[in-house]
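Tutorial handout. Part one gives the primary structure; part two gives the three-dimensional structure as tokens.
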Amino acid sequence: NTVIMCEDGSAQTTITVDTLDVLEEKVTEFYAQYREVIKNANCVTISGSVPKGIPPDFYYDLVMDAHATKLPVVIDASGKNLQAGFSGNPTVIKPNLDELEQLWGEPCVSIDQIKHAGRELFKRSGSVFVITLGAEGAVAVLPDRNYFIPPLKVKVVSPAGAGDAVVAGLAAGLSQQK
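Part two.
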């Protein structure tokens, strides 16, 4: 991926090239290595897109393998990867607003609608939702309550990696059984 930013920080564009084609035997090798590595893990994060050659249920399989070792799992994905991961009932799902709307199937134009969609999706999966809203903050849907998390008042240089930072914080907390 290449991120091109305006010098004044006012905008950015990400160019993603989808060229890698993974052979089936490499997928099999990956699964074996993954199952070995997670034996010594405290938490699993599964995020991003996958290259050609990866089976549609890849994220589901990764979540189920982590569940088999009783590890918490954080998913941050979109499209079919998000849907596959959601069907495995991960511990936490960290969608942005567009990704939440993909899962929910309807637009969410207010905080109340976002909370409602997150709550209903929680009921279907048992997964906690932390929905990032960019400059508008975030919404957390926990088993017994919802939170609106206001944005921090900081000078934004670039939003690149902001969602990844949220996932890292969630994984760190889960790793410490928080």
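Part three, for discussion. The radius of gyration is 17 Å. The longest strand covers residues 128-132.
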